[in-house]
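Morning run. Coffee first, then this:
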Amino acid sequence: MDSRKTMMFGDNADDYRAFRPHYPDALFAWLARVAKQDRLAWDCGAGSGQAAVGLSRHFARVLATDPDTRQLALAPKAANVDYRIARAEDDLGLRQEVDLIACACSIHWFDLPRFYENARRALPPEGIIAAWTYDWPSTHVAPIDQILRRLKEDILGPFWAENSSLYFNRYETLSFPFKEIESPLFHTTIARSKSDLVSFLKTWSAVEKYRLRHDSDPLALIDQELQDAWRAHPPKLPLSVPLYMRCGVNTP
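And here it is:
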């Protein structure tokens, strides 16, 4: 499934790097505390490195993999981060040496049975795997959220991939064959202005698929309406979203 991710985000790599949110350091600090050791973290489906650098502050080494050369080329460099072109399902020869596998808004693109086999080889007993995502954004302002809902359902509805149900269900329906650990609820900032929100929305896969099909920007269909609603009912800024996590232990 990584090939679908490559097609959707590779052509949009610059926007993805610029406008996809980074994650709070508290999330990585919590993962480091849960992991038994801090020798090696694997950022699987790393994209343009939104999680890799955060992990690098808490683990001695980070292996960050993604199948898209265009995305990894834009990832921020760090001395202890090793970026490699690889799919989640590829056997990289890791054998019980990864203390943490982190999947930051990526696991829904994987061939899950094959990835989980790979994860079990890479993790030692009691090693940790964590996957998190966010839902479609909300401003908590009804007139604006109605417009965003119309964009998601009416305009982009036919363009969501089958795997979209996983993140729109907050990973609650994700198969996850590990002994689960309850995790705190973290939040991350997605926008400090209307312009930021529009830029963030442009990075979603269904927007890119709409563009490819119609050779036009679906966000143009709501631009004036969104601008008017934003002016009349300005939301509280910055906008943030909850991060929904599944975290588990690799048990024999």
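The beta strands are 40-44, 61-66, 81-85, 100-104, 128-133, 179-181, 186-191, 239-249. Good start to the day.
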